[in-house]
Amino acid sequence: MAWLYLLVAGCMEIGWAIGVKYTDGFTRLVPSALTLSCMVGSVLLYGLSLKTLPVGTAYAVWSGIGAVGTAVLGIALLGEPSDALRLLCIGLIVAGIVGLRIVA
């Protein structure tokens, strides 16, 4: 169950990271409320995952999911560059996440 909490927490990490872009400096109510909800939910679920997972592994996976998801959505939604080196680096983060899951 801890890995499921961590996966959802990572997805909420993506939600708030992208959501900040749409808050207009936290001046727009609905995007701000959704972004803040994702922030709180992400930290709470991350905390629940720490009941059984090692903190170093959990933090690396949590932040890695957030980093990869945010980078991919930045490319897909915000027109950020998708050159080969950038995609390779994203792939390396994914490999690290998978590796941590395998050894934990």
TrEMBL record:
<keyword id="KW-0812">Transmembrane</keyword>
<dbReference type="InterPro" id="IPR000390">
    <property type="entry name" value="Small_drug/metabolite_transptr"/>
</dbReference>
<protein>
    <recommendedName>
        <fullName>Guanidinium exporter</fullName>
    </recommendedName>
</protein>
<keyword id="KW-1003">Cell membrane</keyword>
<keyword id="KW-0472">Membrane</keyword>
<dbReference type="InterPro" id="IPR037185">
    <property type="entry name" value="EmrE-like"/>
</dbReference>
<comment type="similarity">
    <text>Belongs to the drug/metabolite transporter (DMT) superfamily. Small multidrug resistance (SMR) (TC 2.A.7.1) family. Gdx/SugE subfamily.</text>
</comment>
<feature type="transmembrane region" description="Helical">
    <location>
        <begin position="84"/>
        <end position="103"/>
    </location>
</feature>
<keyword id="KW-0813">Transport</keyword>
<dbReference type="GO" id="GO:1990961">
    <property type="term" value="P:xenobiotic detoxification by transmembrane export across the plasma membrane"/>
</dbReference>
<feature type="transmembrane region" description="Helical">
    <location>
        <begin position="29"/>
        <end position="47"/>
    </location>
</feature>
<dbReference type="GO" id="GO:0022857">
    <property type="term" value="F:transmembrane transporter activity"/>
</dbReference>
<keyword id="KW-1133">Transmembrane helix</keyword>
<feature type="transmembrane region" description="Helical">
    <location>
        <begin position="59"/>
        <end position="78"/>
    </location>
</feature>
<dbReference type="Pfam" id="PF00893">
    <property type="entry name" value="Multi_Drug_Res"/>
</dbReference>
<dbReference type="GO" id="GO:0005886">
    <property type="term" value="C:plasma membrane"/>
</dbReference>
<dbReference type="InterPro" id="IPR045324">
    <property type="entry name" value="Small_multidrug_res"/>
</dbReference>
